[in-house]
Design a protein that fits this description.
There is one protein chain. The protein has three domains: 23-52; 57-148, Arc Repressor Mutant, subunit A, CATH 1.10.10.10; 151-397, 3-Layer(aba) Sandwich (Rossmann fold), CATH 3.40.50. 54% of the residues lie in helices and 12% in strands. The protein has 17 helices and ten strands. Strands 6-5-4-7-8-10-9 form a seven-stranded mixed sheet, sandwiched between helices. Helix 3 crosses helix 8.
């Protein structure tokens, strides 16, 4: 290759890369504009359905769109099955429509509609005829999954409250106020004096978090080795389910839990029932108004940060950084936006859930890493996980 003339300076490598990126972005933008124009044409839609190579794609998109339209109906079928204990009933073996209707004391025609819908959603399975009896119904794979997960069942029933706020989604988006059903349920998130909340105000949400925590704990325990630590502080640890899970696997560790007074009383009772009183300490208080316990070499924030807005989170992280000893680790786990394979969880579900709750938002990992660095933490990184469905896990060092 011939050398460049002396009066022409070679472009820096980074500038060449930026030019290439700009050209690629321009081509992509033009392609997407052309594609959007085609998708809006009825003739193109009909062609896509008839052409063999595009027909499967067009059909999948059509089904996905209908699923979005019918999603509320699907979730209500699931709620009805859970409320009627249908999965528990069929866990003992398949039953006929008449047998199920008799046990539920409901109209067989109505039960038949529910069974038909549940089979279509893979919650139940239609079994072959047996000994001349009517078709029998058994557990489907999804129904079995619901039955084996108490936390999931609790969340499904809790959605009835969430749907009150979602009945008019535009009104919800236009008014994020304390009068919302979800804001009242998660009272601590918007309360000016959360430490003064009584047992009734925290009981329901605390029990819900406790029920769903084992699923989260499994993902975290699979992604991080706690054996290098001696003392863990679980900040906002609720009823102590996460500590109990870690304690069962690491019998030499000691634990401190900090949460609102009404919640720590429930945690202390759990630790007593599990025989963990000698290894645990419960500290009642609020993150910002009360001192954070010191001396732990590991601090965990499990599904805490996404409940709060940015100003609160930065204040908490800075205060936490000041309270931790040099070399101590911070483990942060929560649903995060733009998680490949689980985007509907944080980017759709939690986006609306937290809006209805009146506080917080789901953040991308890079946003949280930047917040951790701004608060003074070092070596902040995302931990590898096999299936980051419930939460993603970040680790940082004081």
């Amino acid at each position: 290759m011939s050398a460049l003339p002396e009066h022409i300076e070679p472009l820096p490598t980074t500038q060449v890369l930026r030019q290439d990126e700009g050209i690629f972005a321009s081509i992509k933008a033009r392609f997407l504009a052309w594609r959007d124009a085609q998708l809006l044409q009825r003739r193109f839609q009909q062609w896509a359905l008839s052409f063999p190579l595009t027909r499967p794609i067009a059909r999948r998109q059509a089904v996905r769109l209908f699923d979005l339209c019918a999603g509320f109906i699907y979730s209500q079928v699931l709620l009805a099955a859970v409320r009627l204990d249908l999965f528990e009933m069929l866990s003992q073996g398949p039953l006929s429509l008449q047998e199920i209707a008799k046990r539920l004391r409901m109209n067989p025609d109505a039960v038949g509609r529910l069974l038909q819908a549940a089979v279509a959603l893979a919650l139940l399975e239609q079994r072959s005829k047996h000994a001349g009896l009517d078709t029998r119904y058994g557990l489907g794979m999804l129904g079995a999954s619901v039955l084996s997960s108490p936390g999931l069942k609790a969340m499904i029933q809790h959605h009835a409250l969430f749907y009150q706020d979602l009945a008019d989604p535009v009104a919800l988006l236009q008014s994020r106020g304390s009068e919302r059903a979800m804001a009242g349920y998660w009272a601590y998130a918007t309360s000016e004096k959360p430490s003064e909340l009584h047992d009734v105000a925290v009981g329901d949400y605390s029990a819900l978090m406790a029920a769903s925590q084992p699923m989260v704990a499994e993902e975290i325990l699979a992604s991080y080795n706690f054996s290098k630590h001696q003392h863990m502080l679980d900040l906002g640890g609720g009823e102590g389910v996460f500590i109990a899970q870690v304690a069962a696997r690491y019998p030499r560790m000691r634990f401190t839990l900090m949460d609102l007074p009404a919640v720590t009383r429930r945690a202390a009772l759990r630790f007593e029932q599990l025989g963990l009183t000698q290894r645990t300490r419960c500290v009642p208080g609020s993150f910002l108004s009360d001192p954070i316990p010191t001396a732990a070499d590991l601090v965990s924030l499990i599904r805490v940060v996404h409940d709060h807005d940015d100003a609160f989170v930065m204040q908490l992280l800075r205060k936490l950084h000041q309270s931790m000893t040099p070399g101590a680790k911070l483990l942060l786990a929560e649903p995060m936006a733009q998680t490949r394979g689980a985007m509907p969880v944080a980017d759709a579900y939690f986006a609306m859930y937290l809006w209805a709750m009146g506080s917080g938002r789901s953040r991308r990992p890079d946003e949280l890493l930047a917040m951790l660095r701004e608060a003074g933490f070092a070596r902040a990184r995302v931990l590898r996980q096999v299936m980051p469905l419930q939460v993603r896990v970040l680790l940082a060092e004081r």
